Amino acid sequence: MKPIVICYPSKLAHETEAINALFSAGLQVLHLRKPTFKETDMVTFIDAIDAAYHKNIVMHSHLSIVERKGLKGVHFTSYNRHLIDDYSHKSLPKSITVHSMSELINLSAAFSYALLSPVFESISKEGYGPTIDHEVLKKYLTHEHEVPVLALGGIDHKNVETARKMGFDGVALHGYLWAQFEKDHDIKTLVERYTMVAEKWQ
Known about the structure:
Radius of gyration: 16 Å
Strand content: 5-15%
Structural class: alpha/beta
Number of helices: 9
Number of strands: 8
């Protein structure tokens, strides 16, 4: 599974152009996480992304947009887990974020994949680091597990191979891409950062 990308939580200049460029460079799944966006803001944001890529977008909020706009699927985090039962009968792909071994071990097979966070020291959240011992994680991940698990938190070009050796089925990029883009709005180097990780993961 190619690295997925979680978008920046607040609005950035030239962000949708950057997202289109990432898709053009091979991105297959974008998690759209904009916790402060109203539904109308979210629709406007999605409409600024090339329609050919809408089928690759996973929503973290305003989940009803998914079917209406023909998006990829829905994602559940701590703030919207109360909606899981509402979507259990739908054939949409569903994913979830987990933060502990107990959550990981008890994952429902109804999920297409899970994001485990944080795996390394976060790039975007100072002082937010791993709480699960890496050896414990490796022991779990290198044995058969029903739901694919993707590493989230501090993933960059330097540690992506470590995540692979730990047994993760994929990685999710966030701060490594957007922390610098927030400062320079440089789409070319953003895509280069994504490509560097994608090439190391393959």
